[in-house]
Write a structure and sequence with these properties.
The complex is a heterodimer of chains A (about 240) and B (about 240). By secondary structure, chain A is mainly α. Chain A is flat, with a radius of gyration of 22 Å. Helices cover about 80% and strands about 0% of the residues of chain A. Helices cover about 85% and strands about 0% of the residues of chain B. Chain B is mainly α and about 240 residues long. The radius of gyration of chain B is 22 Å and the shape is flat. The chains are: A mainly alpha (about 240), B mainly alpha (about 240). Chains A and B meet through α3, α4, α7, α8 and α9 of A and α3, α4, α9, α10 and α11 of B. Chain B: It comes from Chelatococcus caeni. Chain B: Belongs to the binding-protein-dependent transport system permease family. HisMQ subfamily.
């Protein structure tokens, strides 16, 4: 028992500090990707409902592709493809040194695109759930299209979309483990390293699972609180 | 025409790795197909345990579902594949080592357990959506409990569950790409192999096209099956 506790201790002999650093990177990646993916998803959703045919088509192709591709493949395409693209651009302007794409950035972009594709479906559903009269009333009061969206539609949108977006967040949290394959030192990769050096796969992968579970549980609690808070203006009707 | 194609697609590369890609598609489909069906069978008892009167059964089923839905599939695959090596002596003693030595079986086992957790939740929703009167009517007709479940409740629950089960199947196809990380040559595995040898980025785009075709094909097939299975519910 003490053997396993020692494995998790902080300091040169234990892996506790390495795992904690990895967990921090996992959380940082997920938390930074979240606003990017959700905003992009909202734009895609607005594109899907827009009057412009081009915008609609672009939005449909975007969601079809990024919902249909394996997340791992999207990540590799962004990572290796981005490297290639930058290399070509750089050599076009006469810069010949080797370019390495930052794996955190590649993970951020790839996971953000996937999150945007999935969250856009949630956003579309929520946008459809808000009666048109709300928008019309806001316009009738003299609010600009922009202001009526920000002040009238968006607050209601967030409340309706929250359960779906919460699921998107939980999926994102688990998907971050994929960036371990492009050498980002997240929780999963630190676990791989610990396993490689201690030959204790059962113990370390189980610990990693527990850490992910812990994050899921925290998120569940936070989402419950957020849902209660965003719907505090709702009148509870007797059943 | 071939000149035009040759400009877009590296035909030599296609000739060398094309057949392997087809093998990869087969591996992906087999792995997902088998684990999805086995997972579906396992999901029935888990869903029933989730709805059971016994709090022990309920807690066990809930923990199982929570664990497999709350942790990354990648971590689960590594846990089983690398963890099995650590338990080699124990598995040899009970004659299961040939099973756990093989990455393919480890992936199959993990995928089955994982999708069973998701399918159990889908099924539970379906069962709960069946009105209680259906059960009572079946009892009144003298059907034993298990028969009432198999003949009356389960078919109706499956109709409700059909659409989310299709989504789960598609998620499994996409998630299966991670088995390439434990030495299995599925579509993703072949892609990684071809890229590591040719350094030609277009193999990743081939893989993207293959996965999109697979996912879209399965989605359409599922839609046809769904229409056919629910045709008695449509107004004439």
């Amino acid at each position: 028992m003490t053997y396993y506790l020692d494995l998790l201790s902080f300091g040169p002999d234990g892996w506790g500090d390495e795992l904690a650093q990895g967990a921090l990177i996992t959380i940082a990646l997920a938390v930074l990707t979240l606003p990017f993916g959700l905003m992009l998803g909202l734009f895609v959703a607005l594109g899907q409902r827009s009057g412009s045919r081009i915008a609609r088509n672009v939005a449909v192709v975007f969601t079809t592709v990024f919902r249909g591709l394996p997340e791992l493949l999207t990540l590799f395409i962004v990572y290796y493809g981005g490297q290639l693209l930058l290399q070509k651009l750089a050599s076009a302007v006469g810069y010949t040194a080797q370019i390495q794409v930052n794996s955190f950035l590649a993970g951020f972009v790839a996971l953000g695109l996937v999150l945007a594709a999935f969250s856009s479906e949630v956003w579309v559903g929520a946008l459809n759930a808000i009666p048109n009269g709300q928008r019309e009333a806001a316009r009738a009061l003299g609010l600009s299209a922009r202001l009526s969206f920000r002040l009238v539609v968006l607050p209601q949108l967030v409340r309706v979309a929250l359960p779906g977006l919460g699921n998107n967040w939980l999926v994102l949290l688990k998907d971050t483990s994929l960036v371990s394959t492009i050498a980002l030192a997240d929780l999963m990769r630190q676990t791989n390293i610990a396993v490689g050096s201690t030959k204790e796969p059962l113990f370390f992968y189980f610990v990693a699972c527990l850490v992910y579970l812990f994050f899921s549980m925290l998120s569940g609690g936070a989402l419950g609180w957020l849902e209660a808070r965003t719907s505090r203006g709702q009148v509870r009707r007797p059943a | 025409m071939s000149d035009f194609l040759g400009g877009l697609i590296n035909l030599d590369l296609m000739a060398r790795y094309g057949p392997r890609f087809l093998d990869g598609v087969l591996v992906t489909l087999q792995l997902v197909g088998i684990s999805f069906i086995l997972g579906g069978l396992l999901a029935v008892p888990v869903a029933l345990a989730r709805l059971s009167k016994s709090s022990v059964l309920r807690t066990l089923a809930y923990s199982y579902v929570y664990f497999f839905r709350g942790t990354p599939l990648l971590a689960q695959v590594f846990l089983v594949y690398y963890g099995a090596g650590q338990l080699r002596d124990a598995f040899e003693a009970v004659g299961l080592w040939t099973f756990f030595r093989d990455a393919w079986f480890c992936a199959l086992l993990t995928f089955t357990l994982n999708t069973a957790a998701y399918q159990a939740e889908i099924l539970r929703g379906g069962i709960q959506a069946v009105p209680g009167g259906q059960n009572e009517a079946a009892f009144a007709l003298g059907l034993p409990r298990w028969l009432a479940f198999v003949k009356v409740v389960l078919p109706q629950a499956l109709v409700t569950a059909l659409r989310p089960l299709g989504n789960e199947l598609i998620l499994m196809i996409k998630a299966s790409a991670i088995v390439s990380l434990i030495t299995i040559y599925d579509v993703m595995g072949v892609t990684r192999l071809a890229f590591s040898r040719s350094f030609d980025f277009q193999v990743y785009l081939w893989a993207a096209a293959l996965y999109l075709i697979l996912v879209e094909g399965v989605r359409r097939l599922w839609a046809v099956a769904e229409r056919r299975l629910t045709r008695h519910l449509k107004p004439a």
